[in-house]
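Please predict the structure of the following assembly.
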Amino acid sequence: MHRFLWKGIIRDRSRSLLPVLVVTIGVFAVVFSYGYIQGMLDNMIRTTADFQTGHLKVVTRAYLENEEQKPNDLALLGVDTLQKKLTEEFPEVEWTPRIFFGGLLDIPDSNGETKAQGPVSGTAYDLLSPGSHEARRIGLQQSLVAGHVIQQSNEIIISYDFADRYQVRPGDTVTFFGSTMYGSMSFANYTVAGIVRFGIGQLDRGAVILDISDARLLLDMDNATGELFGFLPGGLYNKEQAEHVKESFNRQYTDVTDEYAPVMVQLADQDFMGQMLAYMDIVSLAMVILLVFALAIVLWNAGILSGIRRYNEFGVRLAMGEEKKHIYRTLLVESLFIGIIGSAIGTALGISLCYYLQDHGIDYSAMMDSVNMMIDPVIHARVTPELYFIGFIPGVLSMLIGSALAGTAVYKRNTAMLFKELD
Amino acid sequence: MKEKEEVVGLRGMMKRFPVGNGFFTALDQIDLSINRGEFLGLVGPSGSGKTTLLNIIGTLDIPSEGEAFVLNRSVSSLTPKESAELRNKSIGFIFQSYNLLPVYTVYENIEFALLLQKNSKEERHKAVTDALEWVGLADKAQSRPSQLSGGESQRVAIARAMVKRPAIVLADEPSANLDAKNSHTILQTMRRLNEELNTTFIFATHDEKVMQYLKRIIYLEDGKVEKDSVI
């Protein structure tokens, strides 16, 4: 019987084409959306981790409580020792200090007088230590639009928008005004090494970059850092692995009586990332439920139309002695075949497009100038194992549900009318 | 001489249909006995009860009163599963409009009738080949219904009804859509099968061409048997 059903599906396009198309489109939409959302999420996680949070980070308990203010007066001290311990205990994690600071940047004219001043938010990275991956991590070389990366002390990198607004060029000398971690005023002259454009609005508007050693001098933070970032192997965030490291560290180092005691948090604990990750899970689930629901309704209607078209066929089969439940079962088997075909095609198309966009990405730079999110404007899709079933199973399921609903019409057929209906 | 074996027995059988607040009596006190190997027709004007009677003999409907026995089974007491099984194994149907399944070949249309009987592929092949030879369409086995003439289509329908070698074949106006030549061809075919396989053929018809071939004619009028004549 299955061979017969299969032949019917293959030969009768009106029986199979519309449902296959509907399932294919629906499954493709889910697979592609899921892959692209995963890519976008990865992008946000990676960008946020690289620039703002790390996969893990160690700060003081007091710093953590006021984290949004980036309070360097509550910075970690004795960082060299702490970093060494962390490297010994968690050798798979790369630990690197970061200091976030703010101040004014003074731009002199040709006479050395102030030409312009503007507020800047600075980040200090470990750029000059041998073996540091920080420059590569934040894509400094690729983001340069003029000049070069920091190669020595007293060099500064300025964001493109700021440099453009105040006509700053590589080689110019600028003066930074800020305050030390102890609250005293501090200032220093720097040579502009390069101009960068990350394509991330938040960074391109008014950011400056210093080497960590210069920032420590400027802010009087010798052997101190605001935050000590940890990056998991390969630069890939893994929530469970990060949680394991965090719990292991906090078990050992947490001291609730000391507000300067180090405490470790992971990416999902920080800012909006935890909520974002949970939100994306809900979005994915909602998308799948919506697919099943919407497709089932469409396929229910397609099934009813098909049932009308095959009215005589079912009548003949009933007359020949096929039971109603057997006809109903064959409809379900047919829908299973069709669901599998449509879902397989939809999944293959969706994954193919995701593979393509995983390599090429779509550039949203023009639309993201004013976006305040840490996200790379070139958004890539990401092919994950989930893509192989996230659309496939709902596609088959919705086809079965649609046919199960439409097929109940077989049970309403009155056999006493068959001779009249079939003549 | 063959011993008479009753395949259909109707005793005081009535069939009523609800109409508005009352009932319409489609069959009224029918007493009939039909034996194996008969070639008979139910003849009468429209509304005389021919098709209703075929429905009951074909276990597609049940009587309102009285008894209807088909192959010694009381139609009223059959469950839907049992009546389907009886139709599947012992009753063939031929319709006025052929009702072949358009997506399947001639061979597959005939084979379809055997699928529910769980026969082996070889058994099915033998049965289908025989059926195609009975109706003279062996060369059309791989044709689709759309490639056949009306006469050929009805011959396929006959083969489909006969392939499982049923005890009874019910045919409702089988020649109504055919010209005279094709009508005679299919009637000759059915008559031959009736004689060779001892299958009981019961027609519902008012076609003179069909009546020429019948061995027994039961005239129905307003749901009653007006005349029962053996020719």
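Chain B touches chain A through 34 residues (CB under 8 Å). The domain at 39-62+78-230 of chain B is CATH 3.40.50.300 (Rossmann fold).
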